[in-house]
C-alpha cells in the first residue's frame, strides 16, 4: 500500500520530531573570527574575569571548548556582551596558544598535574628568612618547576629584619639566581617595593610561596590600589594561614608589567616533570653530558659530569646544585 501519491514534495514527508526542541549536533564549530582578545585575570567557580581592552568583563567558558581548562594568564577569544556592565556575561570561545605553562602536582605520586598560571615570563619565589623558617627543599622544587616551564626564577627574601639573608643565599650562589631582600619597614615606606618592581618591569611574573611568608603583603605594596587580605603565622605550628584562595593577575602601576598572586602552597609536587630536562637549566654542564651513558640520571657512578668538572670545565658547586635539584623528587618538601 502506497502512503504517498506520485507527486510528493517535502511537505508530504513525515519527519520524526526532535523531542528536545534543539538543533541537531554538528562537528562543525564556529570560527568566531570577530571575537575580541582578552586576558584572564581570575577564575572563580566557573566564572572568569577577563580584561578586554580597558574593560573588565565577566565570562564563562563556552561548551564547545569541552574539557579544555582556562587559567589565569591565558589569552582568550571572547564573544557576547563585552560592555563590562553589571549582570552581563560573555563567552570564552577559544584559548590561544600558550607560550609558557607553570604546572605542579599535589605530591610526587599524584598523576594529575595542575596548571598554576599560563604565559608568565618569570617566577618569583617568595620565602621568609624567619617566622616561618625558610624551606630550602620547597625553594628547590619551585626552581625545578620554573626551569621546566622556561621561566626565569627570582628569589624574593622577606623579613630580613628577623634574620640575615647571607646564610640562605650561600646554598644558591652557584646557581647565579637574581634575588631581592625586603623587610616590613622598607615595604611600608616603598623602598623594598621599588627594588622588587625593577625586576618585574615589562614582564608577567607569577608569585609563589608557602603561607605566612609575606607574599600577599608584598603584592599589596607593589599594587597599592588593589589590597588583598593578609594573615598571620601560627605561633605553635610556624605555618601561615591561606588568605589568598585563588590566583589573581594585577597590573603594575604605569602598565609596566603584571603580577600574578597565587594561593600559598604547602607542597609542590614534581611528578609531571621529566628529570632529564632539568639539566637544560645548567648550560655550562650540558656539553659534559655527551659522554654519559644512555638515560643517565646525572647522579650515577658512571656519570660523565664528574670527570667534566674534575677537568676544570665547570664549578663543582654547579654540579652539586644540579644533583640537589634532581634529588628534590625523592625528598619531602619539609626535609
Notes on the structure:
The chain has 335 residues and is α/β, with parallel strands linked by helices. Helices cover 18% and strands 22% of the residues. It has helices at 136-149, 166-170, 184-189, 191-200, 215-222, 305-310, 316-326, and strands at residues 36-44, 47-52, 55-61, 75-80, 90-95, 101-105, 113-118, 122-128, 152-158, 179-181, 204-208, 248-251, 258-261. The strands form three sheets. The chain has a six-stranded mixed β-sheet with strand order 10-9-8-11-13-12. It has a five-stranded mixed beta barrel with strand order 1-2-3-5-4. The chain is globular, with a radius of gyration of 26 Å.
Strand content: 15-25%
Strand order within the widest beta sheet: 10-9-8-11-13-12
Q: Round the Cα radius of gyration to an integer and report it.
A: 26 Å
Helix content: 10-25%
Largest sheet: 6 strands, mixed
Model regions low in confidence, pLDDT < 50 over at least 5 residues:
229-243
Could you tell me the number of beta strands? 13
Element pattern in H and E: EEEEEEEEHEHEHHEHEEHH
Give the rounded overall mean pLDDT: 84
Distance separating the two termini: 86 Å
Structural class: alpha/beta
Number of helices: 7
Q: Using the alpha-carbon principal axes, give the shape.
A: globular
